[in-house]
């Protein structure tokens, strides 16, 4: 299959400069400066245990703010990694999973954000317990207050404009993050900053620290990185673009079994500012523990235990999409008429602070839940998507095609009924349907503004769950899952690329 791709650099490819000065004497010099600063801080601030190195700040007017202490870090390390995610669920989750992978190499990882977003990342992650890993350290920083408007399910676009205020305010993380980098640079031979491509502004000062270098994680598939950003994010994306020095490399949440040709195209076309890239995905665990006896296990998993293999379709449109009452009615009617078993996550899209305020409850047709009792479940809270997709009873996934959902469904061998909503999702849907052939289209993107009817939903569910076509997709999904799982095992391509990246930052 030939694809005509416009090689235009999207705002996702926001990059930063890497200044890699590793002179043989630099490590001892750092410690000399550190000791001097400790003495100065002790006499001025009365904090004898303060440890940080103060490199030149970009602005004398904010120098004192950049140098404020952010805690006490005593240990010294060959390499220390700092993770800087965008404060939105898919981005928080993806880079927290990456933190787990890096920490498994006995490298300390420092994950930064606001208190509410770090709490969000911790309580929503599935497949592992971030509190059980001792060398992942969380740093909670304060930023000015921001508006947290509720999502508008009836808006003309599905893009989560309610998150724009928190995105804009997140640039205030620049100063505390820089202060943390200063501090950590004095306790490490090399400081590695891995940042979401939409957080370039926050880490733009990393080049001022001689033993630091930065790596960009685009957060999207290699296939869709050529696409443009939604109009709603133009100003915020431009802000990142305006401070884009050169990055030391790119880390992709994908693998060659999924996107080998498009990863090669990146290198051949030289559309990025670095020839170093590592496809080290999936970041998420590819095997999940059902924890059948766990008190914290979600009730929907207990229900899945009682269903036949591949008999349940999972419906979820991610953390940034709200469906209107009219849309909910059509989906409910389609599910009812399909006669198929289902788990439907029906919750409002996230606000800027997910712990603030009440969430709207979409209205369902009268008597719907009673009619489908025993055949379907409607989940109104946060659902364990990774465990649901990894359950043997799950045979299909109706999805918005966010990249995290795509990579998780691929990992678990579950085909997709693609219903993209915004951003990179339409292109992800093309990848699933046309390239990998493990998905079918629910709605044509050209009919974005048209209501998806119950008949369309019913037909899509039947095609995926009860047809020869659907079974063929399931078989291809299983085969791809096997290849992906093999890639992260010893000797697999993703494991080799991860080993290569770790060797590179330890060089």
TrEMBL record:
Signal peptide residue numbers: 1-24
GO molecular function: zeatin O-beta-D-xylosyltransferase activity
Segments forming domain Glycosyltransferase N-terminal: 78-225
Main EC class the enzyme belongs to: transferase
Domain of life per record: Eukaryota
Alphabetical list of InterPro entries matching this protein: Glyco_transf_N, UDP_glucos_trans, UDP_glycos_trans_CS
Family the UniProt entry places it in: Belongs to the UDP-glycosyltransferase family.
Biological process, per Gene Ontology: cytokinin metabolic process; glycoside biosynthetic process
Name of the protein in question: Glycosyltransferase
EC number(s) from the headed UniProt entry: 2.4.1.-
Species assigned in the record: Coffea canephora
Keyword field: Glycosyltransferase, Signal, Transferase
């Amino acid at each position: 299959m030939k694809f005509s791709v416009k090689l235009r650099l999207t705002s996702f490819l926001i990059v930063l400069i890497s200044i890699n000065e590793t002179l043989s004497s630099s490590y001892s010099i750092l410690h000399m400066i550190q000791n001097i600063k400790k003495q100065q801080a002790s006499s001025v601030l009365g904090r004898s245990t303060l440890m940080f190195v103060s490199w030149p700040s970009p602005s004398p007017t904010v120098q004192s703010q950049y140098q404020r202490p952010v805690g006490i870090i005593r240990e010294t390390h060959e390499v220390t990694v700092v993770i800087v995610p965008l404060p939105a669920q898919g981005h928080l989750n993806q880079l927290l999973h990456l933190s787990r992978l890096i920490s498994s190499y006995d490298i300390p990882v420092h994950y930064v954000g606001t208190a509410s977003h770090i709490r969000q990342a911790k309580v929503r992650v599935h497949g592992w317990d971030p509190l059980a890993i001792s060398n992942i350290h969380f740093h909670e920083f304060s930023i000015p207050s921001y508006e947290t408007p509720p999502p508008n399910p009836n808006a003309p676009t599905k893009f989560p404009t309610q998150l724009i205020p928190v995105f804009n305010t997140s640039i205030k993380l620049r100063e505390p993050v820089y202060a943390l980098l200063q501090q950590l640079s004095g306790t490490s031979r090399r400081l590695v900053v891995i940042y979401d491509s939409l957080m370039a502004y926050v880490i733009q000062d990393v080049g001022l620290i001689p033993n630091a270098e930065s790596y960009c994680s685009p957060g999207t598939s290699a296939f869709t990185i050529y696409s443009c950003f939604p109009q709603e994010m133009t100003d915020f994306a431009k802000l990142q673009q305006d401070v884009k020095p050169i990055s030391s490399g790119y880390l992709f949440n994908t693998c060659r079994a999924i996107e080998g040709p498009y990863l090669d195209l990146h290198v051949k076309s030289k559309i990025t500012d670095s020839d170093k890239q590592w496809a080290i995905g999936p970041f998420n665990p590819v095997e999940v523990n059902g924890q059948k006896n766990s008190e914290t296990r979600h009730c929907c998993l207990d229900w899945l235990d009682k269903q036949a293999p591949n008999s349940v379709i999972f419906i979820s449109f991610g953390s940034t999409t709200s469906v209107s009452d009219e849309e909910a009615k059509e989906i409910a009617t389609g599910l009812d008429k399909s006669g198929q078993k289902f788990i439907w996550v029906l919750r409002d899209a996230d606000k800027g602070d997910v712990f603030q305020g009440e969430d709207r409850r979409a209205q369902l047709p009268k008597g719907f839940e009673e009619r489908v009792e025993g055949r379907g479940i409607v989940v109104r809270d946060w659902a364990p998507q990774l465990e649901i997709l990894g359950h043997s009873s799950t045979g299909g996934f109706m999805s918005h095609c966010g990249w995290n959902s795509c990579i998780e469904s691929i990992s678990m061998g579950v085909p997709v009924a693609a219903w993209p909503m915004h951003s990179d999702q339409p292109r992800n849907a093309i990848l699933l349907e046309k390239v990998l052939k493990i998905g079918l289209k629910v709605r044509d993107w050209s009919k974005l503004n048209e209501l998806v009817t119950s008949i369309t939903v019913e037909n899509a569910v039947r095609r995926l769950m009860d047809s020869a076509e659907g079974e063929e997709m399931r078989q291809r999904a299983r085969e791809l899952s096997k290849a992906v799982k093999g890639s992260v095992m010893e000797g697999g391509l993703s494991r080799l690329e991860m080993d290569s990246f770790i060797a590179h930052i330890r060089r």
